[in-house]
Amino acid sequence: MIELSGVNFGYGRENVLENINLKTNDRDFLLIIGPNGGGKSTLLKLILGLLTPSSGDVKILGKSPEKISSQIGYVPQNFAPNDTFPIRVLEVVLMGLIDQKIFGFYTKAQKDEAINALKIVGIDELKDARISELSGGQRQRVYIARALCAKSKILILDEPTASVDTKTQAEIYTLLKRLNEAGTAIVLVSHDTNIALSYATKVAYVNRTLHLHELTPDVSQQAFIAHLATHHSHFCDVEVALKGCGCQGGFNG
C-alpha cells in the first residue's frame, strides 16, 4: 500500500528526514510517534504527495502519490469551520464524491451512500446538523465518513484524538480498528500511545530517521478499553496504564 525507499527531505540545507524506509500493507494499522519537530508531519505530507522528497522514492499502491490521491483519505488534526458558513454534515460527507457530481448535483444514490457512511461511523442522526455545532470527536467522525464515501483504500489521520476526551479517543480507535479489519489501511500520528499501541500492527518512531516496530495488537487490552468506554463515566490514562478499573470482581476480558 505504502512504500518509501531511501527518502530524504529537508527545508533549505537542513534535512528533516534522512534515509526513510517504510512498507505497509492493506491490513496494517500504522502508528507514527516521535518528538515535536522530529518530522512526523513532514512524513505524512510526503505520503500525501504534498511534498516531494529531495531523494528517494515514495510509492502509494505502486504509483506516485499525486497519481493516486483519490485512494487516500485524509483527516486533519484541526479543522475549524466558519460558524457563519452553514454547511451541514451530509454536505461535508458528500465532498468525498465531489468529482462524481452529475450536472453539478448529487444523485439520490450518492446521498444514500453518504448517509450509510455516517451510519458506519455512528452519527447518521446528525446528518442535517451544522458542522460548526458538532464536538471535536463528532467532527472527526464526519471527516472519516467523508473518506469512506470516497472509498479511500488508505486513511491517514493527523492527531485525530488531540482535542477529545479519553472516552471519545477509545470510541474513535475502536471505529478505526473496525475499518482496518474491513480492509482499509490506517496511518495515524498520535501522542495517545497508551491507547493507540493496543491497536497498532506497526509503530514508526520518527526523529529525523525512522525506526519501525512490528506489533501484535493487544486484543485483551482493546476489550478492556471498550469496557471502560462503555461502563464507566470516567476513565483516563491511569486506568489504561494500570489495566485496572476498580469494578467489583475486576474486569474479565
UniProtKB/TrEMBL annotation:
SUPFAM superfamilies: P-loop containing nucleoside triphosphate hydrolases. Residues 2-233 form the ABC transporter domain. Keywords: ATP-binding, Nucleotide-binding, Transport. CDD domains: ABC_Metallic_Cations. InterPro entries: AAA+_ATPase, ABC_transporter-like_ATP-bd, Metal_Ion_Import_ABC, P-loop_NTPase. One of its GO terms (molecular function) is ATP binding. It holds the Pfam family ABC_tran. Belongs to the ABC transporter superfamily. This is ABC transporter ATP-binding protein. It comes from Campylobacter gastrosuis.
